[in-house]
TrEMBL record:
Any Pfam family the entry gives: Flavoprotein
Any one GO CC term of the record: phosphopantothenoylcysteine decarboxylase complex
Keyword Magnesium: yes
Name of the molecule in the record: Coenzyme A biosynthesis bifunctional protein CoaBC
Native species: Corynebacterium lipophiloflavum (strain ATCC 700352 / DSM 44291 / CCUG 37336 / JCM 10383 / DMMZ 1944)
An annotated Gene Ontology molecular function: phosphopantothenoylcysteine decarboxylase activity
Family: In the C-terminal section; belongs to the PPC synthetase family.
Catalytic activity: N-[(R)-4-phosphopantothenoyl]-L-cysteine + H(+) = (R)-4'-phosphopantetheine + CO2; (R)-4'-phosphopantothenate + L-cysteine + CTP = N-[(R)-4-phosphopantothenoyl]-L-cysteine + CMP + diphosphate + H(+)
Cofactor descriptive note: Binds 1 FMN per subunit.
Residues annotated for CTP binding in this entry: 280, 290, 309-312, 331, 345, 349
Residues in Flavoprotein domain copies: 6-171
Domain DNA/pantothenate metabolism flavoprotein C-terminal per the UniProt entry, residue ranges: 186-401
């Protein structure tokens, strides 16, 4: 879809309504045309003037203003994407029941575009069977109800129900607009993902590392969590990235730490993805004290390296020994003969699938976009076109989850 899109930001009556202001800005800065449709209750938290100023468009809640423009039908018909943030228990119940008692619910009843709801409520309300039944109804109808974050709520209590951050909602919504509703194909699946780069110490100050940002691994974890998976993320050195909702994040530094963390959790996983950029070699001996230019020049100018374990190959060996039943997906970064090298690497590593990226000319590492081919041990080859790493992750899962059936 080319920009600008017509994005409707629905805002329901919860304290997280103030965060909708950042979401509106995010879409505006991305070049979208934004129409804000708050419920009457949302206006108790944020005034219409704020929404009008941020969106540059008029703001109405009811269906009896600008009646000549038939707004209750037109706003929904013209929308390319509808995002409701925060989505309260009440607004989800009304949407699930097919009500059309204000402009937001009328708009949703008319719309045929992708719809994303970002819930925000107390944990008890989120877990209540009535809310969960409504969430299921909405998801079955193709509406994407995002998993809320786990964290501190309005009071001192904590649990699932906190609204995702506006930047996360914007990114996930754009992904849904491109790839379709997330669906729940990974419900009940235990997914173990490694992400980021490893660091191998030379001394307490210096290390050997790489340019990995961890973005692709985190994006895979985020989409898996949104598709219902129980996610464990083993993360090396990464940029500052959002923790996927409900995910366990284990921080590691060196390749050997990463190997231990992955091996310990492999038995309990259904799907393992090795997205980490693992350092192939490490200094033979790391110095306990800082090496000095003068006295330690020899040690600094020539660092003897030893090879690190191949974590992916080790996981495949574990499976062959019956210690895990997980399906195993690897990555391959190649600069030349990308597909041929990828095919050979898939065979060598014994994984079920390999996502082959071309990293020639600085592409991929640390960049927000990616592309490649997902190769299967069965000879399959799916091209994943260039896109933001989260879109790439959603397309990868569409292929990987087919193997669950
Ligand atoms: N990998 C691993 N352990 C290593 C090196 C790589 O588990 N010591 C994993 C990576 O996480 C990735 C896959 O193996 O999923 C391929 O990584 P890549 O660096 O492309 O391959 P290498 O095995 O290092 O081969 P080469 O550098 O010779 O291309």
């Amino acid at each position: 879809m080319t920009q600008p899109r017509n994005v409707v930001v629905g805002v329901a009556g919860g304290i997280a309504a103030y965060k909708a202001c950042h979401l509106i800005r995010d879409f505006k800065e991305g070049g979208d045309d934004v129409r804000v449709v708050p419920t009457h209750n949302a206006l108790n938290f944020v005034g219409a003037a704020t929404f009008e100023a941020l969106s540059g468009n008029p703001v109405d809640s009811g269906v009896f203003t600008r009646v000549d423009e038939v707004q209750h039908v037109r706003v929904g018909q013209e929308a390319d994407l509808i995002v409701v943030a925060p989505a309260t228990a009440d607004v989800m119940a009304r949407i699930a029941a097919g009500r059309a008692d204000d402009l937001l619910t009328s708009t949703i009843l008319v719309a045929t575009c992708p719809i994303v709801l970002a819930p925000a409520m107390h944990t008890e309300m989120w877990l209540n069977p009535a809310t969960q039944a409504n969430v299921k109804t909405l998801r079955d109808r193709g509406i994407t109800v995002l998993e809320p974050a786990h964290g501190r709520l309005t009071g001192a209590d904590s649990g699932p129900g906190r609204m995702l951050e506006p930047a996360q909602i914007a990114e996930l919504s754009r992904t849904v607009a491109q790839t379709g509703p997330f669906g729940r194909a990974l419900e009940g699946q235990r997914v173990l993902i490694s992400a980021g780069g490893t660091q191998e110490n030379i001394d307490p100050v210096r290390f050997i590392g790489n340019h990995s940002s961890g973005r692709q691994g985190f994006a895979l974890a985020e989409i898996a969590a949104q598709k219902g998976a129980q996610v464990t993320l083993v993360a090396g050195d990464t940029d500052e990235l959002y923790t996927p909702p409900g995910a366990e994040v284990v921080r590691v530094s060196s390749t050997r730490e990463l190997e231990t963390a992955m091996n310990e959790r492999a038995a309990a996983a259904d799907i393992i993805i090795m997205a980490a950029a693992v350092a192939d070699f490490r200094p033979q001996a790391a110095s306990d004290s800082k090496l000095k230019k003068g006295s330690d020049s020899d040690a600094l100018s020539r660092i003897d390296l030893v090879e690190n374990p191949d974590v992916l190959r080790g996981l495949v060996d574990k499976r062959e020994a019956g210690q895990t039943a997980a399906r195993i997906v690897g990555f391959a970064a190649e600069t030349d003969n990308v597909l041929d090298n990828g095919r050979a690497k898939l065979k060598r590593k014994g994984a079920d699938m390999l996502m082959v990226n071309s990293v020639a000319g600085g592409a991929v590492f640390g960049q927000p976009r990616n592309s490649g081919w997902l190769l299967g041990a069965d000879g399959s080859e799916v091209e994943i076109p260039d896109g933001p790493k989260q879109v790439v992750a959603a397309r990868m899962w569409d292929v990987i989850e087919r193997g669950n059936k």
